[in-house]
Amino acid sequence: MTQGILTSIFIRPEREAPAIGVSVVEAIAAKGLVGDHHTKGGNRQVTILSQQAWDVVCHDLGASLDPKIRKANLLVSGVDLEETAGQIVTIGPVSIRILGETKPCRLMDEAHQGLKAALSQNWRGGAYGEILMSGNITVGDTVTLHKEE
After folding, report:
1. Which SS3 state, helix, strand or coil, does residue 108 take?
2. 113 exposed, middle or buried (CB, 10 Å; 0-12, 13-18, 19+)?
3. What is the CATH number of the domain that holds 107?
């Protein structure tokens, strides 16, 4: 088991819209985050980005970039998301099953040249998953990754 902290929450009311930072968000099981455009269910109900992976990307690019340009929903510190498909992340009262790696899209290079390629290695673009248990997620919540035994 690995523990970290939730450092930021971002929602996007519409697809391709800029991310908006919030301090608390309601997660609804099998749906997504209230106020985010991914609330119709499906596999990609929430996206999670590792602060440490983002720091490596910024270092590689020689740039100090705001993580909200990645357009992930949750920024976590102290938790490595690489190769975590099938594992469970608990953030406060909310449980999320990681289903796979979030692949960066063309919008990343529009935000900063070379960002798409930098995010394409070692799960640096983050992970996506399905919400298993509803509740409110708040910046500062403990993040626990339950590794496969």
Report:
1. helix
2. exposed
3. 2.40.33.20
Spatial contact of 11 and 137, defined as CB atoms under 8 Å apart: no
pLDDT digit string, tens, across residues 65-110: 999 999 899 999 999 999 999 999 999 999 999 999 999 988 898 8
Q: CA nearest 46: which of 112, 135, 117, 110?
A: 135
Q: How many percent of the chain have pLDDT more than 90?
A: 79
How far is Cα of residue 46 from the mean position of the Cα atoms in its chain? Answer: 7
Cα–Cα distances in angstroms (integers) from residue 79 to residues 1, 60, 102, 121, 131, in the given order: 10, 20, 16, 17, 18
Pairwise CA distance, residues 131 & 47, whole Å:
10
CA angle 24/137/21 to nearest 5° reads 40
Pairing of β 74-77 and β 46-50: parallel
Domain coverage including residue 56: 2-146
Structurally, the chain folds into a number of domains equal to 1
